[in-house]
Amino acid sequence: MFSKFTSILQHAVEALAPSLPLQEDFVYHWKGITHYYIETSDDKAPVTDTNIPSHLEQMLDILTQEEAERESGETGPCMEYLLHHKILETLYTLGKADCPPGMKQQVLTFYTKLLAHIRQPLLPHINVHRPVQKLIRLCGEVLAAPTENEEIQFLCIVCAKLKQDPYLVNFFLENKSKRPEVKSSAAAEGGKESVLAPDTGQSQADHPGEPQAAAAAATSSPAANNNNTNNYNLVTSLLNLTKSPDGRIVVKACEGLMLLVSLPEPAAAKCLTENTELCELLTDRLVSFYKALPPSMDPLDIETVESVNWGLDVYNLKEDAAVFTGKRALISFLSWLDYCDQLIKEAQKSAAAVMAKAVRERFFVSVMEPQLMQTSEVGILTSTALLNRIIRQVTSEALLQEIVYFLLGEDKEAETPATIAQNPLRHRLIEHCDHLSDEISIMTLRLFEQLIQKPNQHILHSLVLRNLEERNYLENKPQEEREEREPLENGQPHDAVDLEEDPLFGDDLSPDSRLSGSDWLGSSPQHSPDHSKSDGKTEVHKIVNSFLCLVPDEAKSSYHVEGTGYDTYLRDAHRQFRDFCGVCQRWDWRGSPKPLEKCNLDMPFFEGHFLKVLFDRMGRILDQPYDVNLQVTAVLSKLSLLPHPHLHEYLLDPYISLAPGCRSLFSVIVRVVGDLMLRIHRIPDFTPKLLLVRKRLLGLEPEGVTYVLTDGISHLSFELTSETPSLSLFLSSQRGPQYAAGRCHCA
Where is each FHF complex subunit HOOK-interacting protein C-terminal domain found (predicted)? Predict the structure, then answer.
């Protein structure tokens, strides 16, 4: 009661007394704090029962007022007094001793407000950054401490100041071998003596107001030593606070780390990744959240759960459990993954690479790879769906690169049948595209579809392009034969096959008239001499018509339903192609194929494991479930949209002369159409049944059990662009079931 009465009396005196000059007023309040420790014997009373909070608040107000009255950058006498008399050092010592109880909280608040309110740069002063560094060490020492809120506010304002002037971070990289031992036993016993002899860690000769003081601090900066024995206490304290049970403290600590990793100073980036536990925090928590997921989850739940930005996930356990089991665990995992992704995305380049590699080794290799390599179908399906969601969510280049290397390996040489199993995980994933389980096949195909759309050149090179570099899928003819110009007949070579007159589309479809395997490959039209025409328009239309003519009229149904032809979604195809061109623009792909004289056409051609599986699946399109076929064509369409000349030539040009034993997308479709023609004539009333199935898929007819559509190819559609003579295959899956038609089975 007496202390409260004294405080009231003091305020009354201050209000009635004439105003003092700012410096005298500042010194008065500081002496009011020091006299407390000299005169007071009861050091157990909480600080809130003393005048100390009021004095500290008045000191801050005076410093703020002084700066407002002076020109920008000019240091006033009050600030000079604070620096010269090492007031921050003394306050640190009192805060560490927490004398009186609650003093640490008051000191943290004073430091925070001082750094936040004073516009002139304070951290370069040695009598500021040294006590700040010492106070940083006190933060995060005890979890759930009563000062946690003040600690995180203080650390975040320091991070914000370093973000404004990144070089200052070098003052906070403390050399372990030169770290001064903090001796504050006197403060711990009572704190009175420490007011008179504060623990400053420096000689009395240092003058904080002089420019050479800051220069000396810079010279003694541990970053200048360029060794691996630096402590990054600011990061360590933030890492400790990320373990707080208070979610708000955790989010603020994560925000502080986000600011620190983005600093461009190489020494700080190196210290961050080598001398702190940041990488361990990221990966250990990611592993912990992943292992908390249920062993089996519905892939649809994984795919459709709402996206959650880290730190913003508000949840209700009862509501989440009612939606599907494991939703809360899944959101927690995806939220932390988002934080890791954003942290790596914002990080300095070398630090980002180290953190991404740590995530790859400690999470993907150690935890996810065994899940993807297991034999349990339920486990494979769940882990593949989770991997697909991870790839969809990741946006940082460094983390995406490490995920790609984890999945596909780092090999850049062309594949051979003997080398496709060298990377077990890559081999297993591609094999899963042709798994006995249709669900696993569909999910793995979706995974690769997601990969193809990511802005990473190695994905496309590893899966497809490295096998097409030498263009050895072309028939190796002598140079003079390649240069011959044959006479044209109706714009085509005289020996080119007219698809409309091909035996494939004739009336005689008996088994005897079916072409053999070699005949199917040879039925492709010959290479047209005007193939490399400058504007490319004629050739593109010829290619489009070649594909469209593959399917005979009796197997088509689009013209029976208005607005369902291939031309109705060319606009969407143009948009997707432009998007892909924007992604691939920085990869410097050639606008025209590699000259044949520079290609090694003698090297045996192998389309690669990935295209082999896709072509095998495409070849069985009439005998596979509808959903599988849609996903196969979706992946092929994404590949065909890529603006690479070799990919367009190999996938989309039916006029190229293939090397013996090679197959292309066109040759695979030719075989499928031949089989389709044979089956059509075994189904009575095929065309009405096909039309009925189409209308049911469009929702124009009620569902029935009479027929099942398995998929097909009647609407192979293409995108025509004005920028390039190549064209992009745009298959039916892009517009849903209504753009796929095939054969019907009698139930």
Answer: 607-699
Assign 3-state DSSP to the chain and report helix, strand, coil percentages, each to 5: 60, 5, 35
- Which backbone phi and psi does 105 adopt, to 5 degrees? -65, -40
The residues near 472 (Cβ < 8 Å, ≥ 6 apart) are 599, 600, 601, 602, 603, 604, 605, 659
pLDDT one-digit tens code per residue, 637-647: 999 889 899 99
55: containing domain:
16-138
Q: Which two structure tokens, joined as six digits, stand for 403?
A: 């995920």
SS3 665: helix
Q: Encode pLDDT of 541-591 as tens digits.
A: 788 788 878 888 778 777 667 666 666 667 777 888 888 888 888 887 877
- Positive or negative, the CA dihedral 509, 510, 512, 516 is positive
| Alpha carbon separation from 188 to 35, 133, 148, 184 (Å, rounded) | 18, 19, 21, 6
65 is a domain residue: yes
Q: For residues 277 and 106, give the distance between their C-alpha atoms in angstroms, rounded to a whole number.
A: 30
What's this model's pTM, rounded to 2 decimal places? Answer: 0.80
| Six token digits for residue 258 | 């986000």
Domain count, the chain: 1
Residue 72 placed within a domain: yes
695 domain residue, yes or no: no
Angle, alpha carbons 718-724-729 (nearest 5°): 20
8 Å CB contact between 98 and 82: no
